[in-house]
Prior knowledge:
Elements: H1 7-10, E1 11-16, E2 22-25, H2 46-57, H3 65-72, H4 78-88, E3 101-105, H5 126-131, E4 163-167, H6 176-187, E5 194-199, H7 207-215, E6 218-224, H8 229-235, H9 241-252, E7 259-267, H10 275-285, E8 296-301, H11 307-311, H12 319-329, H13 335-344, H14 353-365, H15 369-372, H16 374-381
Parallel strand pairs: 1-3, 3-4, 4-5, 5-6, 6-7, 7-8
Antiparallel strand pairs: 1-2
Helix pairs in contact: 6-7
This protein binds iron/sulfur cluster.
Iron/sulfur cluster binds at residues 5, 7, 11, 26-27, 29-30, 64, 66-67, 77-79, 82.
Amino acid sequence: MTTTCPLYTKGLYIEKLNASEAQVSMCCFQTSSRAAYTNINFDNNPYLESLRNKSSTQDKIKECEGCWQNESIGNQSYRQGQIAAFDQLGIAVDGSTDLVSMTYNCQNTCNLKCITCGPRFSSLWAPEYKKLNLKIALPKTIKKSYSLNNRCYEDLDFAKLRLLHFQGGEPFLTNDHENLLEKAAQDGSIQNLTVSYNTNGTIFPSERTIELWRQCHMVKIFFSIDAIGKQFEYIRFPGVWSQVEETMLRIRNIGLHNIWIELGVTVSLANVFYLQDIIDWKNQIMPVTNLGDAVGMYINFTGPVGHGGVVLDLVNANTVLQQRILSYTATLTDHNMANSIRRYIKNCQPNNDWIEYLDNLDVLRNTNWRTSLSQLSDKSLASNL
Ligand code: SF4
């Protein structure tokens, strides 16, 4: 029996390449198509069809490696999250091919250059990436250019669409999400939609966006917040914490009847010793939505989205630092978070490249990780790195 996923027959991820072409897959964690497509046909797209055929005969197809890895260390995979989401919405996962869950990458336009990211997902990163002479190459197929006029989704049938997720870059810096919601408003599917966003919390949505949200079944906002205060400003450079805090609270207070909020924390060596600060901030400042629902919080770990994501991965911790991370997690009040981190660092392969990376970044940005991330500095210096 094969390990299955609801997205094999119900999921679509679109990552634009230029004004007319896009790569596709079933979700953003799956390996994308090498080929580029213009008008995307969900039922007959050759890449999606090949994956559907493969997944019906093979267990754990290699294109979904990220999910299998997470599951192998006991952490929840995106696949398991999607199974739960489909279940929660009462969506039957039968054998038919229907577009039910779609993620749309609103290109890499971004106003931040987070230290764990890179040019693939932040337009602001490219010049510094060059100056740092970084070696991680983007996949050969990724030659992105201006793509805001890309309407590759135009012929998609939204009749059965229930989940529509936007990511970027910063999705609120583009009109892409509004264009897709307008399409859904026109064909009447908007009222069935749970629309969601990964946003960096720097941009307040337009009035038109809020009007479209009002028509949706539900709106979920996932604020990407890796730290607060000084650490936030170092990690999510050049973000200003007070402005982000204000924007998040304004969004929380929009007054919609259908809004849901979660904080998404990307855990790395940079913020691992500051996680309790985020938990405390949430509990004190934004414990509930305007409807009184608890504001959720989840973590993921840095990945190969850029050089910083690779070198700041927790698995690079040496044995002493690893012990200090373990001791720190014992103090966290969020036990699920603590357990995930403990499982994640079980197989560390020490590597100190992150120090040189942060030092070089500091020269370019006139920052100082040793003071902004003093907990990491103290603990790593004491471990003789
Ligand atoms: S990567 Fe995971 S969530 Fe995505 S299609 Fe594969 S199994 Fe499903």
